[in-house]
Amino acid sequence: SESSIIDYALETPIDAYFKSFVEYCSDNGYPLHVVSDGFGSYIHPILEREGLSHLPVNCNYLDFTGETIQPVFPGAVENCECFCASCKRNSVINKADEDEIIVFIGDGYSDYCAAEHADIIFAKKHLAAYCNEHKLPHYPFQSFFDVKRLLQEAVSKGKLKKRNQAEMNRKRAFEYE
Q1: C-alpha span between 50 and 119 (Å, rounded)
Q2: N or C: where does the chain have the smaller number of CB atoms within 10 Å of the terminal CB?
Q3: What is the DSSP letter of 109?
Q4: How many C-beta atoms lie closer than 10 Å to residue 30's C-beta?
Q5: Ranges 69-78, 100-109, 152-161: which has the least confidence
Q6: Does 177 score more than 60 pLDDT?
């Protein structure tokens, strides 16, 4: 049931440093979007619990109106080969202006395609392995404490810039849409 999903979600901890990272982004005028291949039925309650319900979220949904729970995939894209129900690539590239630098933070299989289209990548777990295998430049991290520290360092050293291959990938993605 929807209430049991929400109850379970509310028991699920998030990265202890995520809220501090969100504040850092807000203080510096960096737009932040949550993109997930998961379901809003548990994502929104977790964000609300953390006082972060203001964050824009792109994700899948569960429809509880019928006799059975139906998954809804509003971000599904036929021409993307990422095999995700919610195409993170489109969520990422459609949110950024052409002159903006896209920073992507991820850890899973559903992050591969979006990372290919990002200028700066923070990766752990499966995404880090993918980046290593495909020679995608990235910053490895363990928590959002690391992401915040590494991002601050990159900004102060002027290391935030567009990645040529990512720009080409974004242009190709728009051509196929």
Answers
A1: 29
A2: N
A3: G
A4: 15
A5: 69-78
A6: no
* CA-wise closest residue to 88 among 73, 67, 71: 73
- Asked if 130 and 114 touch (Cβ cutoff 8 Å), the reply is no
**pLDDT at position 18:** 98
Q: Can you say whether the dihedral through the CA atoms of 168, 174, 175, 177 is positive or negative?
A: positive
Look at the block and give the residue holding tokens 């289209």: 117
Instruction: Give the residues across from 61 on adjacent strands.
Output: 72
CA distance 55 to 32: 7
Which residues, 6 or more positions from 87, have their beta carbon under 8 angstroms from its beta carbon? 75, 76, 77, 80, 113
Cα 64 to Cα 114: distance, rounded to the nearest angstrom: 29
pLDDT > 70 in the chain, percent: 94
User: In terms of residues, how long is the chain?
Assistant: 177
Structure-token match 């990002």, residue found = 118
* Per-residue pLDDT tens over the stretch 36-75: 989 999 999 999 999 999 999 999 999 999 889 998 887 7
Across 129-158, average pLDDT? 97
